[in-house]
Automatic annotation (TrEMBL):
Membrane-spanning segments: 430-453
GO molecular function: ATP binding; carbohydrate binding; protein serine/threonine kinase activity
Gene: LOC115980702
Keyword Chloroplast included in the entry's annotation: no
Source organism: Quercus lobata (Valley oak)
Membrane-topology descriptor: Single-pass type I membrane protein
Signal sequence segment: 1-18
Chief place of localization: membrane
Name assigned to this protein: Receptor-like serine/threonine-protein kinase
Catalytic reactions of this protein: L-threonyl-[protein] + ATP = O-phospho-L-threonyl-[protein] + ADP + H(+); L-seryl-[protein] + ATP = O-phospho-L-seryl-[protein] + ADP + H(+)
């Protein structure tokens, strides 16, 4: 124990010896970790220079006047200088650079025109030109705000990994453009469901600033100087006390005071929360936080094991193999385990209401696509893994039922299989082109470290906090089998087929009402269908009627009456995706378009992997994707391809010779598999990315065919050309385009499965560079 303490002490040492008090630092000055290690401020309270860290050094500003030498600002925090010979130079041309013995240069600041530098007594390290400040550390806060410093609109603090490792940790504090000061986990967008603390000043004005005064008062100020809220009241000012606010590694925001005359005696004056489990993301995926001895501890779901024992935020993975759950002999391979009183991010695909606890449990056990069911007060929500941001909450009566494998065989193989999940097919595909596609291990949090989403976060801050997800939507109970209607009923329902809503490949759609006019429905009169026996039609309707997924249009009823075939669906008030995507005034923003893409992927995934028999849609296009009132996408017309006469499959796949949504194998008379849907999905994804139609001859020839144009831009490394007049985060854009290009590969076996597509879109797995289309296409 003593050894550990000693070790920790060593780690925090910022060399405060061998330093010079110097109010002005001239061009050509330099520091090294061993000799002249820092520049002190005039009073000696703050220093700029080297600080020893867990591995190597950090360069930054630290409180030199107290024994703890607390670091308050860190340069290049995620890229600290390697241990060994490094020099920090204030070069003759006014740049602040780190130079290694090997000659590697890392820039800290190069504002241009700086002629001197100074470590100020406020804790601000500044570079001046002959007239004014050209660069200052106060403009780039890391995890700390000092007294006199502020956090202005649009800026964020990121917590550190620990007190001894100042690289970016798990949490962030955003001063949003809507006036709200909000804490989120790193790597999320600014939406309410991810927030875990806020100042409750939403919409209290633009340009709101978080300020910390010299007396320790912490408050939010609007642009006309009005105090919006006082987080702390402040004390009577004294020179002996230094205040600082820090977003700590554990996710809590704290105001500290250091008493200089009591050997740096430290006290916590305020903190955003005392609940150690409140910060979301403390525990990784599939784990939940519990308080033990006033410490936050992470526990895995039953049937799961920690990915990395020493690292709680790495999360948990299944410790059993995931095989197809549809066993031939009918024996049970899985059981449901209960976890009481926990709270998670809601992300369900199917919702059943007025149901008993036992029925909820059984509903998930029988549904191969269901991995977890959340039961609360008669409501049952079926969910997929991973689960996020779990915590024990004794006031929450939620019961999580987790599907767990019963057979325990060879654990080492099982874990390997579990990691691969059901990706065997893709692995084979990927081997062909020998790209290592290390999937399941790479989770959201890996990405978060590099804060890929930072730019989008800035962009959306204005309105994003208000946006509630589709998940808040409670539909009518889904588990009602479709009803068979006599033709006369449908005639009266639609008032004699009076109001036509649209015309599709399969027939005409009319508006109707049921339940005495209370509920609006869409009635589809099928045409061009095989004059099939009633029995086959009814069988098909049962298959379609069994699909319960929030991204699939729900079939309420059907009618077969002589030659007549009609279907009754939920009515979608926002029309089709084609309608909103290709109408400039209605076009959703980037984030919403990407959510639509994920919704479509979820729906197709369900058709491919859960339905028995498997359903290939064959006609995925924006016209067949309907938008409900919450703009949640629902796929329609699935399961109908089977009902077509054989000669019509050709016409319905349509537009020969032009590139549309139709996979090339249709033209090649090759067998059509689920990968044809993946192709069509890829085209729709590219349309969502670019906000335009896949074929548009009004554009210059090279841009007319979106797929070719996207390939061209990707190979030229110029993706900005794909999006018009909208600021989109480059990394995210590239990621989405790559998924689109993978899906639209000419060779079906190379296209990823829908499951992998969804995981790539969700950022759960890495997206490799797609192969060039030309390397596979021989003749077209
Ligand atoms: C420390 O810096 C001062 C002024 O920049 C210089 O005179 C002195 O030689 C340096 N000491 C060492 C050991 O480099
Ligand atoms: C940086 O400092 C080192 C050591 O003082 C010196 O050898 C090197 O020339 C300096 N580089 C620049 C660009 O000033
Ligand atoms: C600042 O807040 C005050 C008081 O709520 C308000 O009257 C004023 O308009 C606000 N200023 C801005 C720019 O919103
Ligand atoms: C907020 O600040 C920005 C940049 O400093 C400025 O352009 C804008 O006019 C300010 N808005 C208000 C309402 O003060
Ligand atoms: C916040 O503090 C300021 C300055 O101390 C004071 O003028 C103001 O009334 C306080 N506001 C609230 C809401 O407490
Ligand atoms: C530190 O401050 C607290 C309260 O401010 C006081 O109770 C404690 O005795 C002080 N400790 C030392 C070592 O001065
Ligand atoms: C999986 O973990 C559970 C505890 O969560 C344990 O009871 C079970 O034996 C483990 N199974 C395997 C195969 O390791
Ligand atoms: C813990 O795991 C997370 C997620 O895998 C990773 O980002 C982080 O760097 C790890 N932390 C440490 C200290 O290894
Ligand atoms: C378990 O798997 C390992 C590695 O695949 C294999 O070497 C071993 O023989 C297996 N054991 C049993 C009992 O199947």
């Amino acid at each position: 124990m003593a050894a550990i303490l000693f070790f920790l002490l060593l780690l925090t040492i910022c060399n405060a010896e061998a330093q010079q008090r110097q109010s002005t630092i001239n061009l050509g000055s330099s520091l090294s970790p061993t000799t002249n290690s820092s520049w002190l401020s005039h009073s000696g309270l703050y220093a700029f220079g080297f600080c020893q860290q867990a591995n190597g050094y950090a360069v930054g500003v630290f409180l030199a006047g107290i024994p703890q030498k607390t670091a308050v600002w860190t340069a290049n925090r995620d890229d600290p200088p390697a241990p060994g010979d490094v020099t920090l130079n204030f070069t003759n041309d006014g740049r602040l650079v780190l130079q290694s013995a090997q000659g590697k240069e890392t820039s800290i600041a190069s504002p241009g025109g700086a002629t001197s530098a100074s470590m100020l007594d406020s804790g601000n390290f500044v570079l001046f030109n002959s007239k004014e400040i050209v660069w200052q550390t106060f403009d780039y806060p890391t995890d700390t705000i000092l007294q006199g410093q502020h956090l202005s609109t649009g800026k964020e603090l990121f917590s550190s990994i620990s007190e001894y490792d100042k690289s970016t940790g798990l949490f962030r504090l955003a001063m949003q453009e809507d006036g709200n000061l909000v804490q989120y986990p790193v790597g999320t967008t600014d939406v309410e469901q991810y927030a875990y603390w806020s100042s409750q000043t939403y919409r209290d004005g633009d340009n709101v600033t978080l300020c910390l005064d010299v007396n320790g008062q912490l408050y939010l100020l609007n642009s006309t100087g009005t105090y919006l809220t006082n987080l702390t009241q402040g004390e009577s000012p004294t020179k002996d006390i230094v205040y600082l606010m820090r977003l700590d590694a554990d996710g809590s925001l704290r105001l500290y005071s250091y008493n200089l005359h009591q050997n740096g005696n430290l006290s916590v004056l305020w903190s955003s929360t005392n609940d150690m489990c409140l910060p979301k993301g403390l525990c990784g995926l599939n784990a939940f936080c519990v308080i033990n001895d006033q410490q936050a501890n992470c526990k895995c779901l039953p049937g799961f094991a920690a990915i990395n024992q020493g690292n709680q935020s790495s999360g948990c993975e299944r410790n059993f193999s995931v095989e197809s759950c549809k066993s031939k002999d009918g024996s049970l391979k899985y059981t449901m385990e209960e976890v009481l009183n926990t709270e998670w991010v809601k992300n369900y695909f199917s919702h059943l209401s007025s149901i008993s606890k036992e029925d909820c449990k059984a509903a998930c056990l029988e549904d191969c696509n269901c991995e977890v069911a959340m039961f609360n007060a008669g409501e049952c929500r079926k969910q997929n893994l991973p689960l996020r941001y779990g915590r024990r909450s004794l006031t929450d009566t939620n019961i999580a039922f987790v599907k767990v494998g019963i057979i325990t065989a060879n654990i080492s193989t099982q874990i390997r299989i579990a990691q691969m999940g059901s990706e065997k097919k893709l692995r084979k595909d990927i081997l062909i082109i020998s790209i290592s596609f290390v999937v399941f291990g790479i989770f959201m949090f890996v990405i978060s470290g590099t804060a890929i989403y930072r730019n989008i976060i800035y962009k959306n801050r204005g309105r994003a906090y208000t946006r509630t997800s589709n998940n808040g939507y409670i539909g009518f109970s889904e588990d009602v089998a479709p009803q068979s209607f006599p033709y006369s009923d449908l005639e009266s329902m639609t008032d004699g087929f009076k109001e036509e809503l649209g015309r599709g490949a399969f027939g005409t759609v009319f508006k109707g009402t049921i339940q005495n006019g209370q509920k609006v429905v869409a009635v589809k009169r099928l045409e061009k269908l095989l004059a099939e026996g009633e029995r086959e039609f009814e069988t098909e309707m049962k298959v379609i009627g069994r699909t319960h997924h929030k991204n699939l249009l729900h079939l309420l009823g059907y009618c077969y009456d002589g030659e007549k075939r009609l279907l009754v669906y939920e009515y979608m008030s926002n029309g089709s995706l084609a309608n909103i995507l290709f109408t400039p005034e209605k076009q959703p923003c980037w984030d919403d378009r990407m959510e639509i893409a994920r919704d479509i992927a979820r729906g197709i995934l369900y058709l491919h992997e859960e339905c028995e028999p498997q359903i290939i849609h064959c006609d995925i296009k924006p016209h067949n994707i309907l938008m409900d009132e919450y703009r949640c996408a629902k796929i329609s017309d699935f399961g109908l391809a089977k009902l077509l006469k054989p000669d019509q499959t050709k016409t319905f796949t349509g537009i020969r010779g032009t590139k549309g949504y139709v996979a090339p194998e249709w033209h090649r008379r090759q067998p059509v598999t689920i990968k044809a849907d993946v192709y069509s999905f890829g085209i729709v994804l590219l349309e969502l990315i670019c906000g335009r139609k896949c074929v548009d001859w009004d554009l210059p020839e090279e841009k007319a065919i979106l797929e070719d144009w996207a390939n061209h831009c990707f190979e030229a490394g110029d993706l900005d050309q794909l999006v018009t007049d909208e600021e989109v985060n480059k990394k995210q854009l590239e990621r989405m385009v790559k998924v689109g290009l993978w899906c639209t590969l000419y060779e079906p076996s190379l296209r990823p499965s829908m499951k992998n597509d969804l995981h790539m879109l969700e950022g759960i797995i890495h997206v490799p560079i797609p192969p060039s289309p030309n390397s596979f296409v021989t003749t077209l």
